[in-house]
Structures are given as C-alpha cells and as structure tokens.
Write a structure and sequence with these properties.
about 180 residues; alpha/beta; Rossmann fold; five-stranded parallel β-sheet; 7 helices; globular
Length: about 180
C-alpha cells in the first residue's frame, strides 16, 4: 500500500500571509523526514496558468490545474504545500474530494490588514476600479465553512502558526516522520 503525501492548502485573501507561512513551513516538514514541494499561486499563474484571467471560470480552471499537480506529487509520497487564494467554496470542495490527505488551512486576516500589507498596491488599484474582479473588493471571498486549521496572521507570529500546523500534522497522521 502506498502512502499519499498530505496536501496542505493555504486559502485566504491576498496579503493575508499565505505564502509567508507556507514558505516557513517547508523546512520543518523536511526536517521531519517528509519530501516537500511548495506550489505558490502567483508563480503558477505565470507558468501553468499563464493566459487565464480572473473570471469565475478561469479561477476554477486554475485551481483544477493546481489540484492535478498536487495529485501527481502526493501520490508519490510528496507533501505538497499550496498557497493560493482559492476564493470559492466550490474550489475547496473539489480539492478536498480529489486529494487524499487534503488539509485546508484558512489564513484568517481582516481585509483592512491585508490592504495595509499590500506592497504591490493591488487593493488600491481595485478600489480605484483599475483592477476588476479583485478578490475581496470586486469579487467575493467565500469564507471556508469547516477548515481543518485556522491561523490568524494579524495576531500570531509566523513561528507560532508553523508550530500549530506541525502539531496538527503530527496528531493527524500519528507520525512525526515520513514513513
């Protein structure tokens, strides 16, 4: 029997701290003996999803492509960390249904904090109608109904959030090292 790798799926608004926390999680997972791959939504949009827009249909296509990559990696025992806004519950349900070992991590951060953190100025552009369909402004972010883990980056340090996730992984899988 093969062991699927876990798929740790970070969801939340732009600027919530998904990628920062995801990157910080890579090394502790590797140190625990796991093979780890990080898939960042921004990087994937520039490669496998280049040319897709931000309509609901294009966003769903983007997530389906990411799920496909996760399936390939996880079936080979790789723990996959995904950092992607994933704004619709339908997308997260699809990922959960398709991926054994799916763990939904909701990065709960208020919109106003995300806007303050926005170094690219995307929220300001969205508020000025320069960017249409921007999640949280012109397009909805549907809050996860039952995430496996909730982290609050506006209150907790990255290290605390990583420790929370690592504790969950050890408890959920019953192992501290890869088998």
């Amino acid at each position: 029997m093969s062991i699927h790798g876990e798929v740790l799926w970070f969801t939340g608004l732009s600027g919530s701290g998904k990628s920062t926390t995801a990157r910080a999680l890579v090394e502790p997972l590797r140190e625990s003996g796991r093979k780890v791959e990080l898939l960042d939504g921004d990087e994937l949009r520039q490669t496998i999803s280049q040319g897709l827009g931000f309509t609901r249909e294009d966003r769903i296509t983007n997530i389906k492509r990411i799920v496909f990559l996760c399936k390939l990696l996880s079936r080979n025992g790789v723990t996959v960390i995904v950092s992607a806004i994933t704004p619709y519950e339908e997308m997260r349900e699809h990922a959960r249904a398709e991926l054994p070992g799916y763990v939904e991590i909701f990065v709960d951060c208020p919109l106003e904090v995300c806007e303050r953190r926005d170094v690219k100025g995307l929220y300001a552009k969205a508020r000025n109608a320069e960017i249409k369909q921007f999640t949280g402004i012109g397009d909805p972010y549907e809050m996860p109904e039952q995430p496996d883990i909730v982290i609050r980056t506006q209150m907790d340090e990255v290290e605390s959030n990583v420790a929370l996730i690592m504790d969950y992984m050890t408890t959920k899988t019953g192992r501290s090292e890869a088998v």
